[in-house]
Design goal:
This protein is α/β, with parallel strands linked by helices. The longest helix has 17 residues, at about 160-180. Helix content is about 30%, strand content about 15%. The protein has eight helices and seven strands, in the order ββααβααββααβααβ. Strands 1-3-2-4-7-5-6 form a seven-stranded mixed β-sheet, sandwiched between helices. It starts with 10 loop residues before the first strand and ends in a 13-residue tail after the last strand.
Length: about 240
């Protein structure tokens, strides 16, 4: 639960949700920054897409037959529903204690910002019991694929799978750009962001990110997916995203 006692909810998607199958586990989480709500809505849509497509769409059926997918649409409900449970007006980046949860995880270079928060502890405990092969931590505020590490510039330290990360990040960004309106996943500073992808620390170095915690301590390939230049899109723009 969150600081204010709200449930942090995951949905497990599997043809046999009551059983552990010998397939890779993938995790999607969103909105650890409470005012970045695009992923909150889109992961709910993704859940609906998976559930309705299973058995009728061959790609979705194959995917779910061969993986186990866990989705948490909102990792920081107190930040999103800052004032009450009926509106996201006044949503904030931080949790109810005022901490940025994406600076609050154990880090190999520098101590986390502040004491570990209930939301952070819950996620650490959760991922300690379930071994995830890969995961995506979804944000908004820019359109970008951010791959590890956040704690070092690439000239200082690269992930062991740096070349693989560049490849799959490029696949995602190029595919998203191809099927989207003009200029999506196309940050204005191409030289810095390499057409929509970046090594985290080359963008800016941060300590205590969830991405680095999962890669360094959990041996899970996690990247940070930034879905929208606007943190809180108007409802009319959500269907296109």
């Amino acid at each position: 639960q969150s600081v204010m006692g709200r449930d942090i909810m995951f949905l497990k998607i599997s043809p046999q949700p009551g059983s552990r199958r010998p397939v890779p586990r993938f995790m999607y989480t969103s909105t650890m920054h409470g005012d970045e709500t695009v992923g909150f809505i889109l992961t709910l849509r993704l859940i609906d897409h998976f559930l309705n497509g299973y058995g009728s769409d061959s790609d979705i059926t194959w995917l779910l037959d061969n993986t186990e997918i866990w989705i948490c649409p909102n990792e920081n409900p107190d930040g999103t529903y800052r004032n009450d449970n009926s509106s996201i007006s006044g949503a904030t980046r931080a949790n109810a204690n005022g901490y940025d949860l994406n600076r609050n995880y154990p880090n190999p270079v520098s101590s986390a910002t502040g004491p570990l928060q209930p939301e952070t502890i819950a996620m650490i405990s959760f991922t300690d019991t379930l071994s995830f092969t890969a995961s995506a931590n979804i944000h908004s505020g820019i359109e970008l694929v951010n791959y590890p590490f956040d704690s070092w510039r690439s000239t200082v330290r690269k992930h062991a799978d740096h070349v693989w990360w560049q490849f799959v990040s490029r696949e995602y960004a190029d595919t998203a750009r191809h099927y989207s309106p003009a200029n999506y996943m196309n940050p204005t500073s191409w030289s810095s962001f390499d057409r929509g992808i970046t090594h985290g620390g080359d963008w800016y170095v941060v300590y205590g990110s969830r991405q680095d915690y999962m890669n360094y301590y959990r041996y899970c390939r996690e990247m940070t997916l930034e879905l929208s230049n606007v943190k809180m899109l108007s409802p009319s723009q959500l269907p296109a995203h």
